[in-house]
Amino acid sequence: MAETWKPVKLAAKVIGHISQGMYRTPAGAIKELISNAYDAGATYAKLHTSFPTFATFSCEDDGSGISKTKFIQLMEGGIGDSEKQATAQAQVGKNGRPTVGRLGVGLLSLAQICPRFKIRSFHEPTRTAFEAEIKFPAYSRQEIDRIVEETKENQAKIIKHGEYRYSDISYEKGKHGIIVTTTALRDMFRKTMSNLETFAHSRFWQSSESYPTFERFIDAIANPGLSSLYFASQYDQLLFGLALASPIPYVESDSKGEGLETILLKVPEIASLQKQLKGFDFRVEVDNIELCRPVVLPSNKDRIKAADCIFPRSPRNVTFTLKDGVHEEEVSVDKYDIGVKGRDYLFQIFHFAYSKTVNGYPLQFSGYIFLQTTRLFPKEYQGILIRLRNVAIGQYDSNIMNYPLAEGPRFSMLSSEVFVQHGLDDALKVDRDGFNSLDPQYIRLQAFVHSILHELIFPGSWEEEKARNKQRRETRERETVSTFSTKLKQATKKQFTKIEIVPKAKGQNPAELVQLDKSTGIVEIYESHPEAKHVLGHKKNRGIAARVVAAFEVANREGTVEKRRKIFYELIGEIFNE
Hints:
578 residues; Heat Shock Protein 90; Ribosomal Protein S5, domain 2; eight-stranded mixed sheet; 15 helices
């Protein structure tokens, strides 16, 4: 490149966010390149990590590219103060895509994984092309903190941070888009990514190769043997993070009904969203794997598939009271109770939509809350995820926006997405990884989520779970009694065929706790006998205690020790092998 190095100029507030560790994960940094491609009208963003060595990295898209003039503007103070910020909510891109980029931090994001990288841009509108190189200094934490302290009273102050150079190149007719490449990956990034000892593909598929398909990837990370991606490789976490963050469709089975699918697509509004996402005509590939939104529900230990679920024809309309300080209003949501073919499972989906003016500006969002009766696998599905114009803001929040009450294991059984169509722009942090929790619109969304959980979902789920558990216990008890009766019949050579706990009755005063009625073949145990409470014990153990008593009394009728022992052991073995 013929051009000399020039300083990169940043707004002081961006330096402040660098000091906070601007992006918490590599996926959080790299997703900015995907967002830029999406905004530029690209049909794809292709990333290559040079798995498994991670010696190089590249990202290529076929969008409109960036002009040299715009690039220089960003380098000369535009990062952190770009025009996207002011107009992001109003802009609509290719195929009706809502603009997702913000604050011009896409280029700066790569500083987390590499100190130096190159850009080649083919700008279709002006039919020009250029290449550039950017490098960032290895500032110490003390130096960054010093800059932050010196500029805290003037966040608009421009700071020199890094260098860049550029030169024109020939424009190739018909070519458009941006290619970002680097061979200067940071040592820590390269080392952590190349450590594949916990690679899920190797663990569950005995393969050291990259995933052949996205379905194989989901199969590996949703394995109940992997409770959390924390125990998988950084490469697994990168794929999940990028798939989760990108504005791409959900996984979906093919025309023959084969392949992965999520039960969410049975909800008409989510199916409509899926159609919209497909209409945006944008795909993301990482190492030749086409990513999808990785939310596959249900996701439990038994790996129940969406195809095995019994989805209701229509939802039930239920209401709750949204309480936000002095503001209260009744809100209606749709509730779907979902069964499973041949299994004792119940899943629930609550779909909601909300639109109000909050703090003088429109706030509009929709979403769902999915609830199952066992924990979700992996842990990264648990909690709530907020999407702003289809792009995930951070990861799933397992604390449910700082939900103030203890709900035990319920948090591990819940998965939710909120789709924000309008609002929350002012609450969005510069790293797009979270929100300002004091923003009035964020507080309204938080109040909505907390109210529906506290008033509608958690109380109902506890009662429904208690009822299901009671039904399961009664079913198991009936099956156990039937099996024991068969064994009793065999052991006594059909003299006795079942046992019966006779409830207390007025005027009833049995002489014995147990009576053996040969005429009916019933072993009767009387609750009204004085010894009953002591012998039968607590209600939940009463069935077992009654069978032990019956086994003793029936065996005790035999004339010899050997016969008594034989029958008693047979029946006791049946009881404790239930």
